[in-house]
Specification:
The chain has one domain. Helix content is 91%, strand content 0%. It is mainly α. It contains three helices and no strands. It has helices at residues 2-13, 15-18, 20-42.
């Protein structure tokens, strides 16, 4: 989990470089993927 958190912080620091829409899209996608992955591991 710490790796994902540090990646998110790194991406957030680059917000001006990558643009808000791209950042938001990646954030939502990565959170969704993490939730699905955790759900699959639990079943």
């Amino acid at each position: 989990m710490a790796n994902g958190t540090s990646a998110a912080v790194t991406e957030a620091a680059r917000l001006d470089e990558i643009g808000f829409p791209e950042f938001t899209c990646k954030l939502v996608t990565d959170v969704f993927d993490a939730l699905v992955s955790a759900n699959i591991r639990q079943t």
